[in-house]
Specification:
The structure is a homodimer of 529-residue chains.
Chain A: H1 20-34, H2 61-64, E1 67-68, H3 71-76, H4 83-90, E2 100-102, H5 107-120, E3 123-127, E4 146-150, E5 157-161, E6 166-170, H6 175-182, E7 187-188, H7 201-207, E8 224-231, E9 234-237, H8 250-254, E10 263-270, E11 272-273, E12 277-285, H9 288-299, E13 307-311, H10 313-318, E14 327-335, H11 341-353, E15 357-358, H12 370-381, H13 386-389, E16 394-400, H14 405-427, E17 432-441, E18 444-454, H15 460-477, H16 493-499, H17 502-515
Parallel strand pairs in A: 2-4, 3-4
Antiparallel strand pairs in A: 1-2, 5-6, 6-10, 7-11, 8-9, 8-10, 12-14, 12-15, 13-14, 13-17, 16-18, 17-18
Helix pairs in contact in A: 9-11, 14-15
Chain lengths: 529, 529
């Protein structure tokens, strides 16, 4: 069970990363994109370079055994995995490192650390896998002291209810560990965000993570049957209920609360049987909007494909899924219960109505072949790219939103144009903005944009911020959400503040004061401290 | 558009009620059930009998035009439609009648009435169709004065987005009016609670109403795309988003808030295309638990039937759906997009694995025939029974809950036995307790119990309360929810208080104080004033 340590810079654990082949493939695309032969590179930080300030607080004796002030521990909890995190690490800026990292073994430890933090006037930052790309785990700069609460040790499936297909699971469990502990029971959560390997159940719930299913059960929200949450005011547990109409849902107050109301310690989660039947494959369309129109109809059929992502031509090219002349739909049905011929047949009728050409339809593992398989592999490996590209001055990032269908096309064009313009203005040369859909609803899609710009060392942060600001303004001005599944954290706050109703923020602030009267938990995330 | 007035006693509008045939059918069942030949009857209240106290407040001149102190208006807003409401009306107890009924024409009127109520120290009770069976619209006894806010005039579909299949709809619209205004667009909300005719969109959202679909979209919750809410602190509006991960959902704080946080004035609702394809019919099982086990498997297949209710043998007999020797499953699939043969075929395989015998499977309108059709008609007409049976001393009521599958059978037996015991203890003779499922989830069913006891005039309230208390204790002790879709109101408060986490109540109370600092809205519902 002894795993390598989490990296202090980059994705995942020490020893993991892009293969030479993947790196070369990516660099090739960037060379062609920017018309340059090479990318001047700056060195990446090593532990030996990092000088942290002395801890401003020391744990009480009773907590010393679960607390660490080790430099690697503190440095590995200084940042998340977003672009700004990479830039700060590259600048050897680890000022946000927490003074102490606590590794609670149980809820009593968590309550004790909260009490300590409250008494010491310290900010407490709940930490799962640390994969936030929005500053959700970054200790705040203006706190008197900071303690990161790493839930790594709460990593067990505690109880299985095979009849109801549910399990009681500790919040600090990582994705692969969770699936490994469910597998012997023939069960699966089937929640596979891109961060799956390096994110945790509690993190998914706290951030309304988006997962495997492109339709129906898109967010973790619907899989939560009940929660246990430790707050500074005490511990609460909701009932295991398949459904209820008793007042506003207590679970829904904590789902998406990003650690400001309490620390989720365990949850009863709704599970699935492992799929036995599959159908699907890739479908080519002449362009992205045609694919989107087909997908709109498909999303309204009630067929509920498990996957129906679409990629624009450039996105398909970038991931090796197509040659850049066509948009791609990755379509898949899965079931543990029944063959899917009728489902697939009707879905193919719909896509053909829009000129869609199935690539490998019908073969049982078509979802692992051709454009679909290519996309799937690239998707999983993508987060390893940042640590290789950012030191070369390449500003690559993504942002995602959701919008109703009737606004989508104009919205897409505005957001894309605003982002492209900002890239030109900020870097002095064109970049690239591509789009795919990660999830889709009967009333609209969740578009996911990627952008690539060639930046300049020393100015990368400002260049990124200019692009991010323009893109986010366009999203919010166009009526979208500042995040479909990446959460708000610290970086999306300005736009979240424009999005959420002021009176909801007032109500949420009041609720926080009731649960966290000393303002210990994640101050500045979602609402003002 | 001029409709008859709502009754002051009984279900629906003046002039509507059970037919002589329906009444005779019901009485026949009660005679056999209790072994009596006749039921001594007491008179039902008429407007002329009702003496209301003089209004304790008078509207300011600016609001006089939308306010009424008419006796019928006040009496028709004194009670909901629950058993206790019927008993109080039969006792000519209209003490809960509001001092004033306000009929706002728009949000400005609502804000003005709220201001007036706040200044006058009056309690304000939002009122849709008044179909609450849990004391949700009953003005509180201890208020200085009470104003009922009847949203009847906010009855329009304001905007249709055919592309995204959504509509912006005013909250005071009744079910039939809503469907009538959507029909020309080929759209339907498909939310058909039993109260459909006499309940409103805003009421459904405020109480997390359960509707047409037995699986998947069981509650109104999932159909809400965005909300507008007037609170004493101001008006808020959430964004129209098909999905979002930006903090806890603002909508989910108001969905189920039962009028304590604000008055829902309009909502963008997700709609469906009108179904063109249907499959289904009734399936007979040897007993209820066998039907339940079949339904558990069916609920976990991913087939998502629109209907898959089961009735125990006594329930099936009482509604004329079967002869009392078998349990019945009412199974239906519907689609606007595709034939349902594959869905129906697989569902029938599942039910046959449990010895289920389809009655009329395969015929396109089988859902309107045989046991299924019989059940459907009885279901819609059922609420008209209370005004005829209560004056005859018949204590009939229902309660509903939800529980995970692995606890269901023991839970069912305990709840049923506790209720039967309470009927014997309270009335001195056996009654009847039956069960059906109204909704079903992969992790558990929503059992719906009906009970029938022969009470004694003068003691009906105490007898009912003893039975209700025993049943509710058994539900809560067994791990269920005190309500799956009837809401909490005033009557479920003692059990809701045992069910919801204390810290959630603290957070909700704090949120209410932020939005309703003078405690105007529905004091005593869900949380203490």
């Amino acid at each position: 069970m002894a795993q390598a340590r989490l990296k202090i810079f980059g994705w995942g654990r020490e020893g993991e990363g892009m293969t030479a082949e993947e790196e070369s493939f990516s660099l090739g695309i960037h060379r062609r994109r920017f018309g340059v032969a090479d990318f001047p590179s700056i060195p990446t930080p090593t532990l030996a370079d990092i000088r942290l300030r002395a801890p401003r607080i020391a744990p009480p004796a009773a907590l010393a055994g679960i607390c660490s002030i080790d430099t690697h521990d503190r440095a590995a909890h200084a940042h998340g995995k977003g672009f700004t995190d990479a830039i700060r690490a590259l600048s050897n800026d680890f000022a946000s490192a927490p003074d102490v990292v606590a590794y609670p073994q149980n809820e009593q430890d968590i309550a004790a650390v909260m009490d300590w933090a409250g008494g010491a006037g310290a900010a407490l930052i709940p930490f799962g896998g640390g994969s936030s790309v929005v500053g959700g785990v970054t200790p705040p700069a203006n706190a008197k002291a900071t303690i990161t609460l790493d839930l790594d040790r709460l990593n067990k499936v505690l109880e299985i209810d095979r009849t109801s297909r549910a399990a009681r699971i500790q919040a600090g469990i990582f994705g692969p560990d969770l699936e490994n502990q469910l597998r012997p029971h023939g069960l699966t959560l089937r929640h596979f965000p891109q961060s799956f390997e390096f994110s945790t159940l509690g993190g998914w719930i706290a951030t309304r993570s988006g997962g495997h299913y492109a339709t129906l059960y898109t967010h973790i929200d619907d899989f939560v049957e009940s929660l246990r949450v430790v707050t500074p005011a005490g511990t609460l547990e909701s009932r295991r209920l398949p459904g209820s109409g008793a007042g506003p849902s207590p679970d829904r107050m904590f789902i998406g609360s990003e650690g400001i109301l309490g620390v989720i310690t365990e949850a009863w989660m709704r599970l699935q049987n492992r799929p036995k039947f599959r159908a699907g494959g890739a479908v080519r369309f002449k362009d992205f909007f045609t694919a989107a129109r087909a997908l709109r109809v498909l999303s309204q059929t009630g067929l509920y494909p498990s996957n129906c992502r679409i990629l624009d031509a450039e996105e398909a090219f970038n991931t090796g899924a197509a040659d850049g002349s066509v948009a791609i739909m990755v379509l898949a049905f899965e079931s543990a219960d029944h063959p899917l011929d009728a489902w697939q047949a009707r879905a193919l009728e719909v896509v053909r109505d829009f000129g869609g050409e199935p690539e490998t339809a019908g073969r049982p593992d078509a979802h692992r072949e051709g454009a679909a398989g290519q996309w799937r592999n690239a998707f999983i490996r993508m987060p390893y790219g940042r640590e290789k590209m950012t030191p070369r001055g390449i500003v690559s990032d993504t942002f995602e939103t959701a919008i109703t269908w009737e606004r989508f096309e104009a919205f897409h064009d505005n957001v894309k144009a605003a982002t492209e313009r900002a890239i030109r203005d900020a870097t002095g040369r064109p970049g690239q903005v591509t789009c795919r859909f990660t999830h889709v609803y009967p009333d609209g899609p969740a578009p996911y944009f990627s952008f690539h710009a060639l930046g300049r060392h020393g100015a990368l942060m400002e260049q990124w911020q200019a692009i991010k600001t323009a893109a986010s303004d366009a999203v919010i001005d166009g009526g979208g959400t500042i995040t479909h599944h990446h959460a708000v954290g610290r970086e999306h706050r300005p736009w979240y503040d424009r999005q959420r109703p002021d009176l909801f923020a007032a109500a949420l602030t009041a609720a926080k004061q009731a649960l966290d009267p000393r303002g210990v938990l994640n101050p500045g995330v979602l609402i003002d401290p």
